[in-house]
# Entry
Amino acid sequence: MAYGRGTYVPVRKHPITGVLLNVIKIKRKALNFDEAVTAHVLNQQGVSYTDIVQMLGTNANRIGEVFNQKTHPRALIKALELMRKA
# Structure
């Protein structure tokens, strides 16, 4: 599955410059366990780091903490289990 293809992405124009901007719908300051598992699944599916950050509405540091297992260290194991069952 190619992420982003055929998907409607809401945009708006900047009121001064007219440049198209993505509308931010989800903002997360921290990731819970299920979100961390999702980050690992997306990573295993080949989704880029930047896209994972944007999809989960967080910042690169939060995703880095998940991938480096500083937070939710069992999330990778759970992600691999889920992918094996799928």
Observations:
- The two ends are 14 Å apart (CA to CA).
- Residues 33-44 form the longest helix (12 residues).
